[in-house]
């Protein structure tokens, strides 16, 4: 019989640019300490740890966890590109739900370098060879960063199909900055206008620089416990993981010559559907979402992939203000990857932290009223999509 999984504690540090960062071990340990303090649990209670990061040598997770102490627990290092933090959370949830563990730490961190993402090795096949082969049948390569070509191409195809204006994509960046202005953990808080977004340097397709998430350094963590452990130890058990799903690519990614599918549309759609079916919750029940807005194009695509609005209606959804405060669902109240920042290994756990604060009523100026359910969406090209539904329980 599966156990209910409680998010007992969350923690993160302010995200920053590579020029101002501390080292990954300091960041990761600090975030983990914050999560333990939030849960009211000493490190000696942790039975297992999952550590997520993309850029670093093997066993960086041990270096982070050893900053808390050396108790001999298993430490499992996780790398799933941009969905790394949520993948660590997924494994931690499984360990609790299965009954194998009662107290598990998931920590994600990233010490990034300046500039666009690039492949780490040139002497072997890249995991993106299969994706690139399909992309080359759809669009021409440029000297733009590879991720921008993929997501920008997906936005371009969508706009050609539905007549979406460049201004619509730019409005997502404007919204992101407005939300981030109330987040002390965010990197970019200064407001921007649609005109400024569109006037920033062109990258690919509809994308300009202000529509692309920046290289970011940071860390976040969550402590998960069984409901039994929470009750026995007087721990706040008001936020639980109601449902969670993780998917990888389907054959459609490589057979349909659709850039949206190349960047994970079908993965996201399937993971969301699995969560809705498992929980009995409809997307219309959701009032707050943290979703993977690495580029404005992907935020727009994700609205439809996870069912916030029907396919082909994202422009109206944005223009009606249904993606922000006063609308139907507040998307990325934290400012999202575009403004809060995107330290790859930490992103999924930072999303978790934001939604737990929302459900507890601790999000301060970002607080969405009347929140009892919160949805998280995180993807990594290559591919992995994780969708998590949190619930506030009495």
Polypeptide structure, described:
This protein is α/β, with parallel strands linked by helices and 394 residues long. Helix content is 38%, strand content 18%. The chain has 15 helices and 12 strands. It has helices at 24-39, 60-65, 84-97, 129-138, 146-162, 166-180, 194-199, 227-232, 252-255, 259-262, 265-279, 296-305, 314-319, 336-339, 344-360; strands at 5-12, 48-52, 75-78, 103-110, 202-204, 207-208, 218-226, 239-247, 288-290, 330-331, 373-380, 384-392. The strands form 2 sheets. It has a 10-stranded mixed beta sheet. Strands 5-6 form a two-stranded antiparallel ribbon. Helix 2 (60-65) links the parallel strand 2 (48-52) and strand 3. Helix 3 crosses helix 15, helix 5 (146-162) packs across helix 12 and helix 6 packs across helix 12. The two termini are 22 Å apart.
Write the layout of secondary structure elements.
Elements: E1 5-12, H1 24-39, E2 48-52, H2 60-65, E3 75-78, H3 84-97, E4 103-110, H4 129-138, H5 146-162, H6 166-180, H7 194-199, E5 202-204, E6 207-208, E7 218-226, H8 227-232, E8 239-247, H9 252-255, H10 259-262, H11 265-279, E9 288-290, H12 296-305, H13 314-319, E10 330-331, H14 336-339, H15 344-360, E11 373-380, E12 384-392
Helix pairs in contact: 3-15, 5-12, 6-12, 11-12
């Amino acid at each position: 019989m599966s156990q209910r999984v409680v998010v007992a504690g969350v923690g993160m540090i302010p995200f920053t640019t590579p020029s101002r960062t501390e080292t990954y071990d300091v960041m990761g340990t600090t975030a983990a300490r914050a999560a333990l303090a939030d849960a009211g649990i000493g490190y000696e209670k942790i039975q297992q740890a999952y550590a997520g990061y993309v850029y670093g040598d093997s066993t960086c997770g041990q270096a982070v966890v050893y900053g808390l102490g050396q108790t001999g627990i298993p430490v499992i290092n996780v790398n799933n590109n941009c969905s790394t933090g949520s993948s660590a959370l997924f494994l931690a949830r499984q360990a609790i739900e299965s009954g194998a563990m009662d107290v598990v730490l998931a920590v994600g961190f990233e010490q990034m370098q300046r500039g666009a993402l690039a492949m780490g090795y040139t002497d072997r096949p890249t995991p993106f060879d299969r994706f690139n082969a399909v992309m080359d049948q759809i669009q021409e390569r440029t000297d733009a960063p590879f991720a921008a070509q993929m997501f920008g191409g997906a936005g371009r195809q969508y706009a050609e199909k539905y007549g979406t204006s460049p201004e619509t994509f730019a409005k997502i960046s404007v919204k992101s900055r407005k939300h981030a202005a109330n987040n002390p953990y965010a990197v970019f808080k200064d407001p921007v206008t649609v005109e400024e977004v569109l006037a920033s340097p062109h990258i690919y397709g509809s994308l300009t620089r202000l529509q692309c998430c920046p290289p970011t350094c940071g860390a976040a963590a969550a402590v998960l416990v069984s409901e039994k452990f929470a009750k026995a130890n007087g721990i706040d058990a008001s936020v639980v993981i109601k449902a969670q799903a993780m998917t990888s690519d389907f054959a459609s990614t490589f057979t349909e010559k659709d850039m949206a599918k190349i960047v994970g549309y079908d993965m996201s759609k399937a993971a969301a559907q699995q969560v809705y079916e498992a929980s009995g919750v409809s997307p219309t029940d959701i009032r707050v979402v943290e979703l993977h807005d690495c580029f404005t194009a992907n935020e727009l695509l994700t609205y439809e992939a996870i069912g916030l609005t029907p396919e082909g209606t994202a422009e109206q959804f944005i223009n009606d203000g249904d993606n922000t405060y006063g609308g139907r669902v507040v998307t990325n109240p934290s400012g999202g990857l575009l403004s809060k920042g995107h330290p790859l290994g930490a992103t999924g756990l930072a999303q978790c932290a934001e939604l737990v604060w929302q459900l507890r009523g601790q999000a301060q100026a970002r607080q969405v009223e009347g929140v009892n359910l919160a949805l998280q969406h995180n993807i990594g090209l290559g591919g992995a999509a994780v969708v998590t539904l949190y619930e506030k329980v009495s």
